[in-house]
Design brief:
Layout lengths: L14 H15 L15 H11 L11 E6 L2 H22 L2 H7 L10 H4 L2 E8 L1 E3 L5 E3 L3 H19 L2 E5 L6 H6 L5 E10 L15 H4 L4
Antiparallel strand pairs: 1-2, 2-6, 3-4, 5-6
Helix pairs in contact: 2-6
Bound molecules: 3-iodo-tyrosine.
3-iodo-tyrosine (IYR) binds next to helix 3.
């Protein structure tokens, strides 16, 4: 049976208003940079809460909303998480990383030391629900989980950027330790860590260029 519906409309803007808004949105998005050096200054929890609420507005397969967010500010937990991540990262950089991957990372200057995991005032651990659990404990299948959670993380990043904080998306591999540290159930798979805070005063970012519209799009 189809779900009940409610009317939906959005105020119609003139073409000129739309173009102005679109340009302003792009200009704001284009100021975002991934940062790796964070100030330890605190960021209010409400900023994180609204960011996660924005993430929760993302479209998802069958509207199952297959995501969960653990926002960590507790210094002891961040320390534990950093230690566990560095064990994996050390193994990655020293043993597991293929040469081609290492070469690709060289311009970024990354290594196994992950100060951001203790410096950034917030770590948002994003989980993907591979299946949901019904009230009676039976499993409910989810659909397009990776796409859905990826879109939600995009919303989260954009919302937090517009709120005035900087971020690093971090995916130590494997990330299974995060489930236990966050006390999440087995149906949830760690998707990524988003470190959130202000950039450190001395923060610099690589002088990178973004692909042009012509490079990333065709209008047919
Ligand atoms: N997870 C490692 C390696 C790494 C991989 C990619 I792809 C990057 O863009 C950056 C780092 C790390 O976090 O150092």
């Amino acid at each position: 049976m189809p779900a009940p519906t409610v009317p939906y409309s959005q105020p119609r803007l003139t073409h000129q208003e739309m173009i102005q808004r679109a340009e302003a949105e792009y200009a704001a998005a284009d100021t975002r940079r991934t940062v790796r050096m964070f100030s330890t200054d605190p960021v209010p929890q409400e900023v994180i809460e609204y960011g996660i609420k924005s993430a929760g507005t993302a479209p998802s397969g069958a509207h199952h909303q297959p995501w969960h967010f653990c926002a960590i500010s507790d210094p002891d937990l961040k320390q534990k998480l950093r230690e566990a991540a560095e064990v994996e990262e050390k193994d990655f950089y020293e043993r597991r990383a293929p040469d081609e991957w290492k070469a690709a990372l060289e311009p970024l200057g990354t290594d196994f030391v992950k100060e951001h995991l203790t410096d950034a005032p917030w770590l948002i651990i994003v989980f993907r629900e591979d299946y949901s659990l019904n009230a009676d404990g039976s499993r409910r299948k989810n659909y397009y989980m990776t796409e859905s959670v990826g879109i939600a993380v995009g919303f989260l990043i954009q919302a937090l950027h517009r709120s005035g904080v900087a971020m690093l998306t971090h995916t130590p591999a494997p990330m299974t330790f995060l489930r236990e540290l966050c006390g999440r159930p087995k149906n949830e798979k760690p998707f990524l860590i988003l470190a959130v805070g202000y950039p450190a005063d001395e923060c610099e970012v690589p002088d990178l260029a973004r692909k042009s519209l012509e490079q990333i799009a065709d209008f047919l």
